[in-house]
From TrEMBL:
Membrane-related topology note: Multi-pass membrane protein
Domain Protein translocase subunit SecDF P1: 180-236
Name of the protein described by the UniProt record: Multifunctional fusion protein
Function as written in the Swiss-Prot or TrEMBL entry: Part of the Sec protein translocase complex. Interacts with the SecYEG preprotein conducting channel. SecDF uses the proton motive force (PMF) to complete protein translocation after the ATP-dependent function of SecA.
Organism of origin: Parapedobacter composti
Gene name linked to the record: secD
Lineage: Bacteria, Pseudomonadati, Bacteroidota, Sphingobacteriia, Sphingobacteriales
Amino acid sequence: MQGKGLIQFLVIAVTIACLYSLSFTFVTRKVERDAAAYAKGDIAKEKAYLDSMAGEVVYNLGIAKYTYREAKGNEIALGLDLKGGMNVTMEVSLQELIRNLANNPKDGHFNKALENANARSKSSQSGYVDLFVQELKKLSPNTSLASYFATKDNSAYVKPNSTDAEVQRFLEREAESAIDNTFKVLRTRIDKFGVTSPNIQLQQGTNRILIELPGVTDEDRVRKLLQGSAKLEFWETYDNMEIYPMLENVNTALATAQKNAEKASNDNPATTANAADTADAGLLATLGAGKDSLATDSLENQLAQQNPLFNVLRPVTVMAPNNQVVLASGPAVGYARLRDTAKVNRLLSDPVVKQIIPSNVKLLWAVKPSPRTPDQLELYAVKPSGVNAGPVLSGNVVTDAKDDFEPETNNPMVTMYMNSEGAREWRRITAAAAPKSPNESGQAIAIVLDGVVYSAPSVSGEIPNGISQITGNFTIEDTKDLANVLKAGRLPTTAKIVEEAVVGPSLGQAAIDAGVNSSVIGLVIVLIFMIAYYNRAGLVANVAVLFNVFFIMGVLASLNAVLTLPGIAGIVLTMGTAVDANVLIYERVREELRLGKSIRQAISDGYKHAMSSILDSQITTFLVGLILFFFGSGPILGFATTLMIGIITSLFTSIFISRVIFEWMLNKGWSIALSNPWSENTLQKANYAFVQNRRKFYLVSGIIVVIGLASIFTKGFSLGVDFQGGRTYTVRFEKPVDLEEVRSNLNNAFGMTTEVKTFGADNQVRVTTAYHIEETSDEADKDVLEKLTSGLEKIQGNDYEIASSQKVGPTIANDMKVRAFYAGIAAVIVIALYILLRFRKWQYSLAAAITTAHDAIVILALFSVLDGVVPFSMDIDQHFVAALLTVIGYSINDTVVVFDRLREYLGLSKYKKEGFGETINLAINKTLSRTVITSLTVIFVLAVLFVFGGEVIRGFSFAILVGIIVATFSSIFLAAPMVADLQGNGPAEETDSAVANKAPLKPAKA
């Protein structure tokens, strides 16, 4: 085996890397177990414990130390369906943007065009600006766009004589800028919210932002936080020297409080034990007056006790010319390590400290560390001196801001423009803040967005015209961010929640249990089956499978991927497909052994001859995963990620790790058996006449497809809420409920037909309603919830809880349907193109495309026929689309293996004289054992997933389970035989009379 040393090095290196990535998860889980043990069920205590640990080092590797916050950022994050929490899609209102950019004109054509564009956007993939321009031109073809948008605020970009194309480009730029700025504002707010492992993504090409907040329980607070307007403000500031005496007093008061707490603890040891119940408990914990800090007599600890505040918040100082350390001038009054900011906040919010800080002093953190202190955050002191003791100026006076360069030095800077009202106020403010003499420095004005300081430039002189240049130690990225912040203060639009999903922690825990159970059982079944069928070689495959699961988890952790329930399903599915490469290799090795080769030579040739089939089959499945990744969203991304990672890791483990083990066993002189007595000759003598009987199989498939299409066009589908829009709730009752009673009560409450289905157990239902489907406001949400509650409360003597909820607006639902359709079409086209490139024959490509389309239609038909018949959800939703594409990938995986063997035989001289149909039969028969064994392995695993995987993915696992059976049928009985029909009357094809004289589907006579 060539390169054995390199392979061994790679295995060791990847193993160490995965262990490192996974170690963070073990560390954070330990901290969280400690928090749970300390809190004893008190959620507030548990949260306080974890908050206090945020900046503490919990993982020490010697060369690197990690705080709990840092370790948490590197662990395997759990998605909402596993952890509970909130998932929202926010949509930036471009209709509002365009109206505001035109200063809200009363023109009927203008407003009608906006209404029409809004309606069309729900079913069109075109951009909103483009739709608006089209509609306006229909209504008023002779009116120029400039007549609406050549306003004073837009004068820098739109002139009265600007062409329509120029104005449209301006609108598109403003729309893109509004979306980007909203994204940045939301990202900053979420970072401040304190959610562990949040995920925020800008959905490229749309005006939507996807946000995942695991573990969130206060949904109302999240909605207010996300939908509030960006609050840009300008604040006067204090100088560091003015604030230092106050901070010194705070430091002294905290030191005194700590001494008193320590004395009380020494006088009465029970005080420490009962500290959690005393008024000073939070302060005592923050100051570190616990068992470790009080027992340690180190210099560092003594300094911490003497200077509790200054130990974590260091004053801003500089070196004077006489080499003495003195206070620095400027608005920054202190800086703290990132991990200590939470501790500083707790100290400053203590009642003892609040009495010292006057009401006219406000302390705000910088938005991010400065380049000179990359691990520290500055604290600023601002002066409430404006209206109602607030900022001196509001950010809504800013009309524009641009990142630019200083003419003299070419250093990055920001140019800010204000309207006439703002310019007047800004002139007064800057005149007061300007230096009074050449030797003085001007006062700083803090630029604050949502309570965070983005910049605090000093005023160098009065600014009379409202045009300001902000300079400093900026990078180009800094100026871009600051310009966006200034523009965010006057965002002429809002962002609203148009899709929302809330998963309760109890439902999340049930999903975790179901996922873990299905994973373990599925893994055990795969391991047992491989040993039972392949004997000692099965043990080698099992080692590869275990390494594969380990590598998948390690890679997920290293990529900071979010693990979802469909992601677990992807891992479980990968367990089944991971053995596919081993099965291909083992079946080929067994063929080589029957030719009389030695075990060493047979293993070498088996790996070599199986490689083409392995790569082709796995690449096609990977391509499907790639399509899912680009077209999917939410949990489907998790499934696609694990599927693609699983394919890569399974290739590595089955090809390299199993080969290294075989080489080691051969060198040790061990006996290697590739079968047990009962499995040694399974399907080895198969000689079925597939081609000769192909028309029978066409007929069977045709009948199934016709029946299915009849059901699709008459009965239709039950669409999930993500494809039809509306709101859906999972309701768990204390006792089993009568489904008709629930449905009747809710129909009366909503005044319309409500969909109610059993969801798993008979005490759990899923309710879907189209009430207020067109409205996504908070008021509409409350109204729907009130109607739902009023209907549920009529069920006497049966308490209930809403375990999860989901809201999808009609625009989102339509977009998901369109994306799902394109995903299916793209999958078929990509696979057909790959087959064409690999096999260089259109017949192979067309046969593959037809059979994959056949499989998709059969699965769709099955979901239509069985909807309402089986006792679980058969909704067509994103999960179903993922299942359908997975089936397509598996179907082509099977088909490619047969095609690959057919290509191999057609390239050998001894088969060129055979009829084309006979060669196809031979290729199918020779790969039949591999097809059946792989399919059975995957079916076993999917059956476990279907039974134990939980109700959330039962329809998903059922679709893949049935799809694998259908895909196995089509790859054996349809795909390769269809090539014979598409090939035409070539020289190698059997004549019709020869075909007619063949026996039916059974082993041919010798």
